[in-house]
Specification:
By secondary structure, the chain is an all-alpha fold. The chain has four helices and no strands.
Length: about 90
């Protein structure tokens, strides 16, 4: 039983090593991706994330405005009154 367990673990480790060194994801192997992360090299995603954050950020000094009509206010008041009546 111990030899069989050793054989299975060895096979799994060799398979993981072959995957990490040979399979390409986005044009590079997982080992190359890890080396880039380890060295702290900037990724290709960072500029895109910065652009999205810039687009999502509201303009400075511009507060959001909400315009509600009288009909909207009346509808909300009716809903609140219904809820208060059921409690």
């Amino acid at each position: 039983m111990g030899f069989l367990r050793f054989l299975v673990w060895t096979t799994m480790c060799i398979g993981l090593g072959l995957f990490a060194a040979g399979w390409e994801i986005d044009g590079r192997t997982p080992v190359q991706h890890l080396k880039q992360i380890w060295k702290g090299a900037p990724s290709t995603v960072a500029p895109v994330v910065d652009k999205v954050k810039h687009l999502a950020a509201p303009a400075t000094g511009a507060a959001p405005t909400e315009n509600h009509s009288d009909a909207d206010r009346d509808a909300v008041n009716r809903l609140v009154a219904k809820r208060a009546a059921t409690k």
